[in-house]
Amino acid sequence: MWYPCGLKLDDIIGAGMTGYAGRLDAVVKWTHPNDVRFIERERKVYERLGSYHGILRYFGPVENGILLEFAHHGSIRQYRMENAEATPLTTKLRWIQQVTSTICFLHSKGILHADISCNNIFLDLDLNAKVADFAGSVIDREPYLCFYEASYSHPNIKGVCVQSEIFALGSTFYEILTGFKPYPNLSIDEIEKSYSLDEFPPLDGLDICQSIISKCWERSYSGVESLLRDIETEVEASKTKN
């Protein structure tokens, strides 16, 4: 059976002689007509990616916008601010693995996100992490239209590339585990100065992923695949501790 973009069998609520009816739990993301290039870039990325468990479901275009899956728990940043003490370590580690696996998938499709952060990773009803917001992403070497937050980018890494993505993932993991962006009390200039000297927030208080975050920030990974392998090893090790 054929389904429109983004729909699946579970969405069907009725059928008749001439067609089917499906229910969507969706939101519309739109922009001003003068900024339509951002929506066009995002639409192009979603249509390249197709259906994948680690991204918000894409249902198709609307006027000056796109129709996307509704994230019941908002972004990880929103959720962590409201549930800092209630989030189990196993859940945080699952998010880290899900996000890294999804970024690995993006790269395999010729896409660099260009704005990885806990503000652009969303949580569905079951608290699974879904990467979103591709309005500034690089696809087929087209120039990026957005850029990482200051605490997610290293000033010595120029532009958007695999290394910039991995550095941003390190900061993402840090925020997932601590509930705060790296250097939350510093100005953008102060963050850039510290990073340019390879001075990063201390990791001593973290229960997991210390070495992984450090390697992301120190640009020790050549690709996301090797980073994902380290995370999978961390996940398996955590199971033996519990």
TrEMBL record:
The protein's UniProt keywords, in alphabetical order, are: ATP-binding, Kinase, Nucleotide-binding, Serine/threonine-protein kinase, Transferase
Q: What class of enzyme is it?
A: transferase
A GO CC annotation given for this chain: cytoplasm
| Listed EC numbers | 2.7.11.1
Q: Give the GO molecular function terms.
A: ATP binding; protein serine/threonine kinase activity
Q: Which domain of life is it from?
A: Eukaryota
Every Protein kinase domain range: 1-242
Database matches in Pfam families:
PK_Tyr_Ser-Thr
Q: Which InterPro entries match?
A: Kinase-like_dom_sf, Prot_kinase_dom, Ser-Thr/Tyr_kinase_cat_dom, Ser_Thr_kinase, Tyr_kinase_AS
Q: Which reaction does it catalyse?
A: L-threonyl-[protein] + ATP = O-phospho-L-threonyl-[protein] + ADP + H(+); L-seryl-[protein] + ATP = O-phospho-L-seryl-[protein] + ADP + H(+)
Identify the Gene3D superfamilies for this entry: Transferase(Phosphotransferase) domain 1
Q: What does this protein do?
A: Component of the EKC/KEOPS complex that is required for the formation of a threonylcarbamoyl group on adenosine at position 37 (t(6)A37) in tRNAs that read codons beginning with adenine. The complex is probably involved in the transfer of the threonylcarbamoyl moiety of threonylcarbamoyl-AMP (TC-AMP) to the N6 group of A37. BUD32 has ATPase activity in the context of the EKC/KEOPS complex and likely plays a supporting role to the catalytic subunit KAE1. The EKC/KEOPS complex also promotes both telomere uncapping and telomere elongation.
- PANTHER family, per database record: MITOGEN-ACTIVATED KINASE KINASE KINASE, PROTEIN KINASE DOMAIN-CONTAINING PROTEIN
- Outline the subunit composition: Component of the EKC/KEOPS complex composed of at least BUD32, CGI121, GON7, KAE1 and PCC1; the whole complex dimerizes.
Protein's name in the database: EKC/KEOPS complex subunit BUD32
Question: What species was this sequence derived from?
Answer: Pseudovirgaria hyperparasitica
